[in-house]
């Protein structure tokens, strides 16, 4: 029985800011937080090794882990706690404080997962006593992406508008986004020398997420998009450099592609155009392909390591008319009919 009334005080009551400008945005700021918290050189070295791990090889992923860990260290320092020996109760207080701060379930789940991963490594390296987040109750995250998607008809209208009213560069860029379902980061980073042929197929080697940005993936460019690309290349010329560049020769950037997608969608009469992004195209192509191809085929195209990530793109997977029960019923109905026929003939 609990006798101390203070023990029933809501754990979320925390004056510590847990949203807004991150306490750490780079390695240097993170190290400063660790020093302020009194962490040992072994803990700092272990953190550096953890950040160099395979799951954090991408610069953007590594930066996300640094930011999430920075929030935790900021919280502990404000409470005067030693990061190397935190009681699970304090981890639960932190989780409750994140919820009280109004953060989205996905954001809270990501922050907690990052901290738990860090502690697993520190315990393994002998730099922490325990993982205080072990077996913690964490936010349930929806397994369907909330990115605004497009129907095939809407994509068709955007492509038709681009072909008729936009520049050859814009039409070729949109075609490439559609036929490769690539991330916008790959399109803005690719050079003209990435184009080529492989066993008679027109291909392009695009930078993809992972391995510090040095990894590339070969994509097929089907004839439909190849025609658009060739028309643009005639206009662009054979000079080296970025495949899609500005009039001054500088590569286009991601904000430009964001604005471009929305402008074309608006001109093509696509509803809610203001909520679209280049990633909407990737989502839409994934959904479209999953209606026609096995999961593993679409997973390979998108470059997902985990098939569960690909499944999040399948907007139509909950539709009842796609249930395999129909195919199952038809198969057994056919088998039953064959046996009934044999019985009658006999």
Structure characterization notes:
Pfam families: Phage_int_SAM_1 (PF02899), Phage_integrase (PF00589). It is a single chain. This protein folds into two domains: 10-125, no CATH class; 152-311, Intergrase catalytic core (hpI Integrase, Chain A), CATH 1.10.443. It contains 14 helices and three strands. β1 and β2 form a beta hairpin. The chain is globular and about 65 Å long. The N and C termini lie far apart (77 Å). The chain has a three-stranded antiparallel β-sheet with strand order 1-2-3. By secondary structure, the protein is mainly alpha-helical.
Uncertain runs are 1-12
Summed up, the helix count is: 14
What gross morphology would you assign? globular
Output the CATH topology of the largest domain.
hpI Integrase, Chain A
* Order of adjacent strands in the largest pleated sheet: 1-2-3
Number of strands: 3
Radius of gyration: 26 Å
Report mean pLDDT, rounded to a whole number: 82
Strand % is under 5%
Summarize the helix and strand pattern as letters.
HHHHHHHHEEEHHHHHH
Q: Helix/strand-derived class?
A: mainly alpha
Give me some keywords for this one.
single chain; 346 residues; mainly alpha; hpI Integrase, Chain A; three-stranded antiparallel β-sheet; 3 strands; disordered N terminus; Integrase-like_cat_sf; Integrase_SAM-like_N; DNA recombination
